[in-house]
Design brief:
Blueprint lengths: L1 H7 L15 E3 L6 E5 L4 E7 L11 H4 L11 H37 L3 H47 L13 H19 L4 E2 L10 H29 L5 H18 L6 E2 L1 H73 L2 H26 L4 E7 L1 H4 L4 E6 L4 H8 L9 E8 L2 H11 L14 E2 L3 H12 L12 H8 L6
Helix pairs in contact: 5-8, 6-7, 6-8, 7-8, 8-9, 12-13
Length: 496
């Protein structure tokens, strides 16, 4: 209706007629007639277009009170009601005057524009309105995001009030363990939020007040849970691969101390929550154990590569030596053969040829061992002085001189040298070693690092398995000499 009234006021030149008094507008039902608008509704006052309308008489609805005369009884109450009604009417009148002033300001601003300019201004306002709606939607979205963040911050603050902070856990560096850790941490947070982390009395009174008793119990519960969580976090940060039992005892002691100090109000950390924190501790220790195992395996792999390089270097040096010897023997054979034939010394010629053949066989053997990585020497050794009579080491070496490997194993890391029970060459030494390891797998000393090839077994037991694996064993010493150990046992005590 406001749009129709604005157009009805436009003159023949596209300008507004601003001489009409306030409140008089063209009647939408009767062309050429002005009707009075009191701010809420059309009244019955009309005037011809072009004439100056007279001020309309006051509406009976707004000037008189339906209450009539003031009663004798309750006059004060009735007067107060009339004053309130009068104040409300004045407020409505002021509001209508403000709306009327705003409308006249718009009319005056638009009246100075042509019809095309009005349409352009309308389009601009439409675009501005669309932008405002977009901005409003964006602001509402941002408010929603901020409210969500506020909820999260409030939840995080509740956890921090009881000492549950976000900190770096060692298991976060492992893909497998991180999934388990996330589940445990989620259960820990849920237990705190759902009041399942700590138990306390519910009917405790303080100074004969149940409210003060509840307040005291809640504060003590929060303080004790905060202390327990701090101890659990410290245990996680300090646990290592070998001290998990110590860390578990430490956190269990914290739980017991809280229970003793809170006995008056039956205050204690629940077993469910304690098991969750212990599981978190175990994941940290498990990560350190895995790291230690990986480091140990890496050291073993490097040692194996060094052993392999030594074997390759020894085989290469031996082949070069044999080639030089073969060349020397061939030159000697060429020089001596004619002389031996002239003298008729066929045995000498045969001895030279056998010697050349031996050198060539040695070269072929070196080439075979260099080409066949499964070939090598299998050994069974023990160290009574270091490990006792019921432990042996079963391994293999591809070294040209296998006893060099045994001597290296008996270096300064053990107090006595190893005794060799057997050491023999096999074309498939890897398979022989694997079968021996499988036979004594249940008696392996180190069940984590399988490269530690020590077994709880006697040399006689290994001999029986070896016979069933490779057949007849040419040389095997069942009883170790342990010379250094036995001499040390019989030597006089020279300690001070």
């Amino acid at each position: 209706m406001a749009k129709g009234k604005s157009r009805a006021l436009l003159g023949t030149e596209g300008r507004l007629d601003l001489t009409t008094p306030n409140g008089w507008y063209p009647d939408p039902q009767q062309p050429g007639v002005l009707r009075y608008w009191d701010g809420q509704r059309w009244t019955g006052h009309t005037s011809e277009t072009g004439a100056t309308p007279a001020a309309p008489a006051s509406s009976p609805d707004s000037t008189s009170d339906d209450g009539g005369a003031i009663p004798f009884f309750g006059a004060r109450k009735r007067a107060e009601e009339l004053r309130q009604t009068n104040a409300q009417l004045r407020a409505q009148l002021e509001k209508l005057e403000r709306v009327n002033a705003e409308q006249r300001a718009v009319i005056e601003r638009v009246g100075a524009l042509s019809l095309i300019e009005v349409e352009a201004e309308t389009e601009r306002l439409r675009v501005e309105l669309a932008q405002l709606r977009t901005d409003k939607a964006d602001i509402e979205r941002r408010i929603s995001d901020e409210q969500q963040q506020l909820v999260e911050v409030q939840g995080q603050r509740e956890l921090q009030d009881v000492g549950l902070y976000e900190y770096h856990h060692p298991a976060e560096s492992s893909v497998d363990l991180r999934t388990k850790l996330d589940r445990v941490r989620s259960k820990i947070k849920d237990a705190v939020r759902e009041k399942l982390a700590i138990h306390a009395a519910t009917g405790f009174h303080f100074n004969n007040s149940a409210a003060q008793g509840r307040k005291f119990v809640n504060e003590m519960s929060r303080i004790m849970l905060r202390a327990y969580n701090a101890e659990a976090e410290n245990c996680v940060k300090t646990v290592k691969a070998g001290n998990l039992p110590t860390a578990e005892a430490r956190i269990a002691k914290a739980k017991d101390q809280i229970e003793k100090q809170g006995r008056m109000i039956d205050l204690r950390v629940t077993d469910y929550y304690h098991q969750l924190r212990v599981r978190e501790l175990e994941l940290a220790a498990e990560f350190h154990i895995r790291v230690q195992e990986e480091k140990e395996l890496e050291r073993e792999r490097k040692a194996e590569l060094r052993e392999q390089r030594k074997a390759e270097q020894e085989l290469k040096a031996e082949r070069e030596r044999l080639e030089r010897q073969l060349a020397k023997e061939q030159a000697h054979y060429s020089n001596v053969k004619a002389m031996l034939e002239a003298n008729g010394d066929l045995d000498g010629i045969r001895r030279l040829e056998d010697k050349l053949a031996d050198v060539q066989r040695a070269i072929d053997d070196v080439d075979y061992r260099a080409a066949n990585i499964r070939a090598g020497f299998v050994y069974v050794i023990s160290n009574v002085g270091s490990f006792g009579p019921n432990m042996v080491k079963i391994g293999l070496t591809r070294r040209l001189e296998p006893f060099d490997r045994v001597r290296e194993l008996g270096d300064a890391s053990v107090p006595f040298r190893f005794d060799v029970h057997t050491l023999f060459f096999a074309d498939d030494a890897v398979t022989v070693e694997t079968k021996l390891h499988q036979a004594f797998a249940a008696r392996r000393v180190n069940k984590v690092n399988l490269r530690r090839e020590f077994f709880y077994a006697t040399p006689e037991e290994v001999l029986e398995v070896l016979k069933s694996t490779v057949g007849e064993v040419v040389q095997y010493t069942a009883h170790p000499e342990a010379e250094e150990y036995r001499l040390s046992q019989g030597a006089p005590d020279v300690t001070l």
